[in-house]
Structure formats: C-alpha cells, structure tokens
Amino acid sequence: MKSLLVPNPDLRLHMTLWTIVGLALVWSFVGCFDRFTWFLVPVMIGTAILLMIYPTFRFSRLVCWFLAAHAIVLIVGGHYTYAEVPLFNWVRDTWHLARNYYDRMGHFMQGFVPALISREVLIRRGVLKRGPWLNFLVVCICLAFSAAYELFEWQAAVWTGTKADAFLGTQGDPWDTQWDMAMALVGALTAVKAFSKAHDSSMDLIES
Predict the structure, then answer these.
(1) In the chain, where the domains are located
(2) How far is the CA of 168 from the CAs of 76, 121, 128, in angstroms?
(3) What pLDDT, on the 0 to 100 scale, is given for residue 8?
(4) Which regions of the chain are under pLDDT 50?
(5) What is the pTM of this model?
(6) pLDDT 10s digits, 188-207
(7) Distance (Å, whole) CA 138 – CA 202
C-alpha cells in the first residue's frame, strides 16, 4: 500500500472541491433565512476534521466528490432552512405533497456519505476485509451516527426553544425523527449495495 505521506496527485481536485464548498458557504451566509440555523450546519466542523487528518489520510476521489455534494446539500438547507428550499417547495406544490421533502434527502445523504467514509476507513486501516461483516458494521455505524444527530437536534430544541424550529424542520410530523433515521438507513444500504464496486475502484487508485 502506498504511503499516505507521499505527494498528493489529487491536490488540484481537493482544492477545487474546497473552493466550491467555500464559495457556497459564503453565499449561504449572505442573506440566510436564519443565522442560528446556519451556524448549526456541521460543514465547518467536517472541513476542520478533514484538514486535520489531511497530511496522513486522504479519501478516495469518489468519497471526496460525495463529501462535497453532501456539504452543498447541508449548505443549501442552512441558507433557506430545510423546510423552505424553493425547488422542493415547487415539487410539493406541483405534486400536492404534504410537506417539503428536502430534509428527507439530507438525511438520505447523512446515511449514504458516512457509509462510504466508514467503509473506506475500515478497509484502508485494515480493520475489516470486504464482505458481509464490513457491510453490516458500516450500516450500524451510520445508524448510530443518525441517532446521535437526532439526539443533538433534541438537545438543540431543549436549549433554545422555538429558535430551533427552523433547524429541526419537522413541519408538524410527529414521526419526523423516525423518518430521518429510516432515510439514513436507506442511504447507508444504497451506498454499500450499489456503490461498493465503484468505491473499491476509486480506492485502488490510491493503493496501487
């Protein structure tokens, strides 16, 4: 396996993705619907973690693309709030749906992207080999992460009261928490069942 400390051939890709996400963050902050909701978006924390581990561990290109896509999903939600993204309001009104479903897509990504992240870490660090046990553990990790995030949302609501309403985006659904976790589960299963081969190929570019 190639040392992770060698010069990075994907630096241009990484810089491009960071630039796109950075510009999107600036856009989302300017004129955002609710500053409190914007500051709860975890993109800055995720970016800080990636920069901290960057000298010793760099994710495959596939994961980098999906990390950026997930960041954009969060950033857009932070700008409009997850219950008021205009495109999904249009979908709701056009198809006579009961609610804006943007947050459902966000929670799908919350399972999908962490599944690829945890899968790559477990494989490249030699914790588990590819196979059913790897897939099972990856899905469990994603469900645990989703549950932890729901606990965070709960505490945000307890600490701040009505200020957290835009962040929670429940839209009056008493089963919103369960739906969020179910969507994360679907996202994780999609990642391990439909994208494992492409993910392996992307990792092979690093390990070859």
Answers:
(1) 11-207
(2) 15, 30, 35
(3) 76
(4) 1-4
(5) 0.89
(6) 999 999 999 999 999 999 86
(7) 18
